[in-house]
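User: ok so my PI wants both of these folded by tonight, can you help

Assistant: No problem, let's get them done. Here's the first:
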Amino acid sequence: MGDQAQILRKRMEASREPKKARTIAVVSGKGGAGKSNIALNFSLELINRNKKVIIFDLDIGMGNINILLGLQPRKTFADLFDGYLSIFDIIEEGPKNLHYIAGGTGFNDLLQLDDRMKEYFYQQFHRLEDMYDYIIFDMGAGIDEDSLCFILAADECIVVTTGEPTSFTDAYSLIKMILNHGGKMPLHVILNRAKAKKDSKTLERFQQVVNQFLHIEIQPMGIIPEDKLVSEAVVRQTSYLLLNEKSPASKSMKRL
């Protein structure tokens, strides 16, 4: 797995020097942490800062990005390998000129990538690197063989957790697995849906535990508070940044 990720990284970096696009994997140890919502609003705020951004929804068969946006994609990531389309054939456009590649929302879209498919993806991925400032990988919850390969090849990794003990435990296990498979990229953590000021202390303790037992510095990237507007945005199928940029969650995302 480490060898596959190293090959992927080398091929992603070989497209041009110096590399323009920065690839960030957004991950969580379990479902329900709000990872896809973080990836979406983070991307939109980057666009607010005049960056060009594309999101890959890599939760294949159970993708959320198009649902959060209330959009029906023409193609999904799985379609890339159906007749081996050009990657430009599956890029969709969302609000504020956000580009995304949908993961699909039906189990028929579930996909196992063999070596030939991965090789084709690498070739197509190269074509995007001089078009965007940021490429965001919105990974599925947890880790499997395919997702780990993408995570290890990213320039950075953002781990999304909540203040629940089980969420922290799963986030710790995910970080440990990344490290055990040779991950050396900078790791950041976002505490989502924080309900009280004490959650910031909990995040500090989590950082200390990771430092003590895994011997790495994981950087606290920020805290997104519990905000009823987030649920409202999900129901209305839009981002909370677009719904109200002055809400507590939106203000925190801007700082983050």
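One down. Here's the second:
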Amino acid sequence: MKRVFPLIIVLITLSLVGIIALQFSWFKNMLELKKEQLLERVDKALSDVSRQIAYKERLSSTYPKDEFDKLLRSGMSMFGLYKPPSIVQRFNISELNEKIQKVLQEHDLKNLKYEFAIINNTHLMTFELQTNAFNKVSNDTINNKIRVIPIEPVANEWEGLASTEQIVFVIPNFTRQVYRSLFWMICMAIVFTIIIIAAFFLTVRTMLRQKKISEIKTDFINNMTHEFKTPLATISLAIDALRNEKVLQNKEQLQYFGNIIKEENKRMNNHVETILQAALLEKGELEFNLKPHHAHVFIQRALDNFDLQLQQKKAIVNVHFSAKNDWIEADEVHMINVINNIIDNAIKYSKKQLTFNIETKNIGKQFIICMEDNGIGMSRETIKRIFEKFYRAHTGNVHNVKGFGLGMNYVKTIVQAHKGHIKVESLLDKGSTFIIEIPIAINHT
């Protein structure tokens, strides 16, 4: 797993980078293709416009018959001395713009932004007509595209004459308009890329979590094996001792070894009960018998349970019951177990001499219990994970403190089941403080 996991990460990363690179290349090619397609459609549309506004009337229809005959005999029309009327003589800017918009709509270019002008090449490119912003956009040839289409008369008499008028069509912010036409395609590409990245992130996080869970479970099984192996070995030795005839004849020794078996059996039962409670907590099947109780009584009973161990540690215990109202709606067994777990941790992770302070107080409608020790303290990482299931704080390179890593998870679950909150404050080598808040019982007798 240690070798496979980094390989999977590398392969997924390379795949993700490759997909993004391919999308970028595809989009770049698509952008160029769209630019070419747009210009091609614009040119076709402008050609249609040119044909629509070109002069179509025959020369004979604009002159009386006798004058037309004279023109034909003199050949003046063929030499260009007579020219068709200009665009400006036949259309105004609004009429031309309306025709252009109509043709653009027919070519599916109704959203295209543009400016245009009609120029006459006869007198050094004279601007006959132009839109308001034409001069401004026509000067920027980098960001804007300019298309020039000649306007040629279509009547037979005018054929062969050079075109003197042209449509100058400017597309402002050309690239931006192409981007706009690809808006939804770009959005979809971005969305799917984000989805791929999110899937990659979730996959890695899930793998890391599974790896962590696997390590925690392995650690839990090792701890559980050790916790059961020790009492079983002690019971086995005690049973072997009871088979000795000298021991059988000595009542004091019989009682001594009998007590050992009883205590070790009780110890194993406690371990089994802890694991069963953890399973019930996970399933949400733990039942509570909630009744109004004096919380100070729970604290005192918990301290009494550890009286012998505290004496062996030569612990200094300071108790300050400052809360005026200690009535809480609680399950007696579970609330005592909560305090038991915190006191037990204070003893396990204590230094040579333990100083343990317990203080209660009321803040608003909350009953507060503060339990402070001067033990080895916790790192920031441990503080974040202290209430995780199976997590056990390291006290060096190895776990030198016994336990399953279920106690603090149990504590938090029970406190939350009582509609309370628990938090921890700690510094390495300075000790830890556990603060429990439980709502005060409204009705009690």
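The two ends are 60 Å apart (CA to CA). The CA atoms of residues 78 and 317 lie 122 Å apart. Good luck tonight!
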